Amino acid sequence: MIRSINKNFILYLLISIAFVSFSPYLFEDYGIRILNNIFIFIILAVSYNLINGVTGQLSLEPNGFVAIGAYVTALSLLSEDLKWDLFQLEDPAPWVLALSFDIFPALLLSGVVASIVAFILAVPVFRVRGDYLAIVTLGFGFIIKVFAINSPEITNGSIGLNEIPSVLDSYTIGFIAIVVVILILNIIYSKFGRAMKAVRDDEDAASAIGIDTFKIKTLAFVTSAFFEGIGGGMLAVLLTTISPDLFTFFLTFQLLIIIVLGGLGSTSGAIIGSFLVIGGSEWLRFLDGPIDIFGIQTDAHPGTRMVVFSLILIIVMLFAREGIMGKREFSDIFRKKR
Amino acid sequence: MDIATLLQQLINGISLGSMYALIAIGYTMVYGVLRLINFAHADIMMVGAFATFFAMDSLQSGFVVATFFAIIFSILIGVLTDKVAYKPLRHSPRISLLITAIGVSFFLENIVNVTFGGTPKSFSVPEFFDTIINVGSTILTPTVIIVPVVTLILLSLLLFILYKTKYGMAIRALAFDVKTVSLMGVDANKIIMIVFIIGSSLAAVGGIFWAINYPVLTPYMGLMIGLKAFAAAVLGGIGSVSGAVLGGFILGFTEVAVVAFFPELGAYKDAIAFIFLILVLVIKPTGIMGIDFEKSRF
Amino acid sequence: MSILELKNITKSFGGVTAINDTSFSIEKREIFGLIGPNGAGKTTLFNIITGNYKPCSGTVTLDGKNITNKKNYKIVKDGIARTFQNIRLFSSMSVKENILIGLENSTSYTYLEAMFRLPRYFLQERKISKRADEILEFLELEKYKDEIATSLSYGIQRKVEIARAIATDPKLLLLDEPAAGMNPNETDELAKLLFKIRDHFDITILLIEHDMKFVNHLCDRVMVLDYGKTIFEGLTEDAIKDQEVIKAYLGDFKHA
């Protein structure tokens, strides 16, 4: 198994690197912006897939950890002067002022903070049957938003933070995405990934064979949170402005569609799904405006796009539950039968 | 704090608690028979509120007619949801069902959003509900009396159905063992449909009460309320109807008390439900009434 | 020295007493049969030994160590592995991967070492891959190693489940009705295999079974359970002649 990964793996790696390197020449500004968005969503989706798809625990956590990551990175990158300018509701807390890191340590810090929070959440939830994970993480997302709005000395409340320095170019974003995908694949193709899949397939049989299911679920959850935090930090830099209502349940919902469409449990699927959903979302934007049907203009109905998305999710779950890739990866499709 | 204010807060608590209870029941019953956290349930509540609004606003009907319309409509949506989205997945892994429920929830929210537009709708509360009744120095409105009373009546009705009719017995049995119940000739799907009818109608009533108390409607109002109602159901003991009611009232009273006695924490009142949820998970996962459905998995 | 010892085990569920003050012990390298009519409590006893249920009273001792209230996954480390009556293999993984999961305990590389592909990961993965191949060969399963486990025939799946259990390097192997659904040829093969396993891996085997011919052929000693109580413990051939056992089984015997 290790050898077959190496062969195809190098190939895909080279293709990805080539794609990222040449993308500025292949696409114009608008395309690059979408591509950057896609790269970040790839990071988020591949991480989200780890707890949801690989370990089989339905969690709705991304928007919470992405928010945490975004704020940590934003606050680390903003200079002290800027903070004094931006914070209008209340003076920034002293430790907020003192927070100052370059982009890479900032992203790392985002990941670490998200992981710590994830660990605290994981302990009560995974001790019990995982049914409640979805609701707890859903509530968690809300709480983070409530916290962001009501802690103006940390987050500048509902105004949010802007003028975040744009210190990431599309090469860096793309390469970070490649690195994250590799790291997560490394986990999946190891005893830990096998244990996660075992927990997904049959949790009771997994514990009967010696797997500490609590530990595995927590590992998956914390790892997902870590990379979601990093993704959040990158999002903050990409958007240069963040506010509490950027990180609503819709973000989680998009990621859910991405990994379901791509195939719950498949990392390649998550990548494909990111391209399809984020790219498709741009393309479907026309649904939110007035539509031209056979020369008749309908009114603008903002929100139609979301209706279509929810229908897509329902239809995929009903008729094509495996998604595009099922649980397989690219390398599984092209593997020759021995 | 004087007696009048205390009484006022008590009444508020009962009012809020009733609404949470009505919605929590739907969650707990569906979880009981399907082991599904029906994410779309709170959106049924929202649909109920919007349907009433629609009936009064666009169809110019009276309040009472509007409520009937809304309840019937909500039941339809609830049953349809089960038939179209949940029934085909009866034998699929639970995660598929949960994801579909999320999809349905999102669908309902956005369809309402597209149909009614994104601006919050102002619910025209019939004047009757705002007439002021003075009891000493406490101000009452008919709402605060009607909500708990109707809730109580509905609850009694529900408990009667559950414990004194054969359908109720089937529902309770189904919660424990689907296979055996089916083997005994009970049409599980019919029973499940009845559960959705009951849950949806109660949610619709809850939605209407909510609209009367907080007359601003948005398509996404169900999200927060639903989360809290589910937390209430877990607090009381998921799967237990009396637990859902108990949890609903505890949550309602706590929220009112926090806002009344600790106004600085007011913004965090929404976090209370979440805290209860975590506490229950840590201390006693089966909740106050503590029904453990987990039979031998080995 | 006995490898497994159960003393005064009682287990009730609600109002029903499933196991009623039961005791028995198994010697090293024995093949021990746990038999009795349906509903006697055999699987419950299994679950108590493996830590899935906590007994209401009594103790379970493995090789001198008290494992009574230990969690089930920890007991695997102590040296007990089991198979299930209804075969619970991991449905998304190949035969070899199912076995690799059993070998998890023989690895010690950390999460970070896996994530960053440090040398220890490669060394240990290669080691367990070889070991998995050895186990596959021993059980004549090598040609199925990349097949999805649950796509294979029932008999092969049984073997895979046993292979997975052996991979955990147990002292005691618990098999829950391993011969269920097998014809006489297959049961003979299974018996041969279990003897081979016992000898090669130096394991003690405890199995639940209904097929008396199989039990008679395979088991050194048996314990007969009826309504949660031990009604016989001793040599297999004596069990068949015992009055109480015959009474309990009336109508339940296949062959003797």
Quick overview of this protein structure:
The complex is a heterotrimer of chains A (338), B (298) and C (256). By secondary structure, chain A is an all-alpha fold.
Q: How would you describe what is shown here?
A:
The complex is a heterotrimer of chains A (338), B (298) and C (256). Chain A is mostly helical. In chain A, 71% of the residues lie in helices and 1% in strands. Chain A is built from 16 helices and 2 strands. A two-stranded antiparallel sheet of chain A has the order 1-2. In chain A, a hairpin with a 2-residue loop joins strand 1 and strand 2. Chain B is mostly helical and 298 residues long. Chain B contains 11 helices and 4 strands. The longest helix of chain B is centred in the first third of the chain and has 32 residues. Chain C has 256 residues and is an alpha/beta fold. Chain C has 2 domains: 166 residues, P-loop containing nucleotide triphosphate hydrolases (Rossmann fold); 81 residues, no CATH class. Chain C is built from 10 helices and 10 strands. A 6-stranded mixed beta sheet of chain C has the order 6-7-8-3-9-10, with helices on both faces. A 4-stranded antiparallel beta sheet of chain C has the order 2-1-4-5, covered by helices on one side. The longest helix of chain C has 20 residues. Chains in contact: A-B, A-C, B-C. At the B-C interface, loops of B face loops of C.
Radius of gyration of chain B: 19 Å
CATH topology of chain B: ABC transporter involved in vitamin B12 uptake, BtuC
- What's the gyration radius of chain A in Å? 20 Å
Strand order of the largest sheet of chain B: 1-4
Number of discrete helical segments of chain B:
11
- Count of distinct structural domains of chain A: 1
The total count of strands of chain B amounts to: 4
Q: What is the CATH-assigned architecture of chain B? A: Orthogonal Bundle
Largest sheet of chain B: 2 strands, antiparallel
Q: Quick one: CATH class of chain B?
A: Mainly Alpha
Question: Termini distance of chain B?
Answer: 56 Å
List keywords for this structure.
heterotrimer, A: 338 residues, mainly alpha, C: 256 residues, alpha/beta, Rossmann fold, 10 helices
